[in-house]
Amino acid sequence: MAGVGENDQTMQAARPEIYLNGHFMPPQEGKVSVMDRGFLFGDGVYEVIPCYGGRLFRLEHHLQRLDNSLHAIRMQNPLDRAQWQAILQRLIGQLPGADQSIYLQITRGSTGKRDHAIPTGIAPTVFVMTQPAVYPDAAALATGIKAVTLEDNRWLRCDIKAITLLANVLLRGEAMEHGAAEAILVRNGYATEGATSNLFIVLAGEIITPPKSDHLLPGITRDLVLELAQQHALPCSEKEISQQMLDSADEIWVTSSTKEVMAVVELDGRAVGNGTPGPIYTRMAGFYGEHKALLQAGRILS
């Protein structure tokens, strides 16, 4: 498989197109109005879809989450499933068989003026691009990462995959200032998720992740980890994780489309477990890797 550098060179040579409002074009030709509500208000939603070996990862799950986010902000999906499939297949076809990351964004569009009132009857702005996949650092996967706990000071609709990510950016930035790779967010005494990830702990042999709610993003990778745990008879449940449970956890993991499954080995300067990725994490990372390899080889559909 080509490395990221090789993919970058291929991408540049192919002059990859983007999709914008019904047209495919070189990225430098894409233009969006400065009056677009995404630019003025952050009024829009997005998705990030991994593509392994030219095969989209859990496309139906991602498109359903996109529909849910659009519904939550009082928008309709401007494209149907067949249209999305056609757009995405054309874009990923620019790097045949390569691992990629698809980014798509829909904003409410522009009325030509700045007004907080939600307008009706305007065309949304639809943007899609692809780029070579960037995998989690191999050393971090092998040794784990550091994290810190921070107050979850975001808004109350974190289940919407909104483009307004400033709070997440600041929280992740604060974690990095503490020498950590991720922030584990705590609201009213309970851990919700990471600044850029979903959260799992292992406590007394059980895999636990917070239940879906308005306070966290319903992660696609999160759901797959739960499915894999069930398939391999690993005890797992969805229940609230108190600060005490977090502090007592034998293992802590974070998951996302870009992080995949990653162990947290230090939290707030204290070792998690024995300070190395735990045995249940090692098994789950193996199961996830096997699932990914089957998708790359075309032996499963998503």
Question: What is the secondary structure topology, with strand pairs?
Answer:
Layout: H1 4-14, E1 18-20, E2 23-25, H2 37-41, E3 44-52, E4 55-56, H3 59-72, H4 81-92, E5 100-107, E6 125-132, H5 138-143, E7 145-151, H6 166-177, E8 182-187, E9 190-194, E10 198-203, E11 206-209, H7 220-231, E12 236-238, E13 241-242, H8 243-248, E14 251-256, E15 260-267, E16 270-271, H9 279-296
Parallel strand pairs: 7-8, 7-15, 11-12
Antiparallel strand pairs: 1-2, 1-6, 3-4, 3-5, 5-6, 8-9, 9-13, 10-11, 10-14, 14-15, 15-16
The share of residues in extended strands comes to 25-35%
The level-1 CATH class of the largest domain: Alpha Beta
Total number of beta strands: 16
Summarize the biggest pleated sheet. 10 strands, mixed
Number of helices: 9
Low-confidence stretches: 1-13
CATH architectural designation of the largest domain: Alpha-Beta Barrel
Q: Could you say how many structural domains there are in total?
A: 2
As a percent range, the share of helical residues equals 25-40%
Content-based structural category:
alpha+beta
CATH superfamily of the largest domain: D-amino Acid Aminotransferase, subunit A, domain 2
Sequence of secondary-structure elements: HEEHEEHHEEHEHEEEEHEEHEEEH
Walk me through this protein's architecture:
The chain is α+β, with helices and mostly antiparallel strands and 302 residues long. It folds into 2 domains: 4-132, Aminotransferase class 4, branched-chain amino acid transferase, N-terminal domain (D-amino Acid Aminotransferase, Chain A, domain 1, 2-Layer Sandwich); 138-296, D-amino Acid Aminotransferase, subunit A, domain 2 (D-amino Acid Aminotransferase, Chain A, domain 2, Alpha-Beta Barrel). It has 9 helices and 16 strands. The strands form 2 sheets. Strands 7, 8, 9, 10, 11, 12, 13, 14, 15 and 16 form a 10-stranded mixed β-sheet that branches. Strands 2-1-6-5-3-4 form a 6-stranded antiparallel β-sheet. The protein is globular and about 55 Å long. It starts with a helix and ends in a 6-residue tail after the last helix.
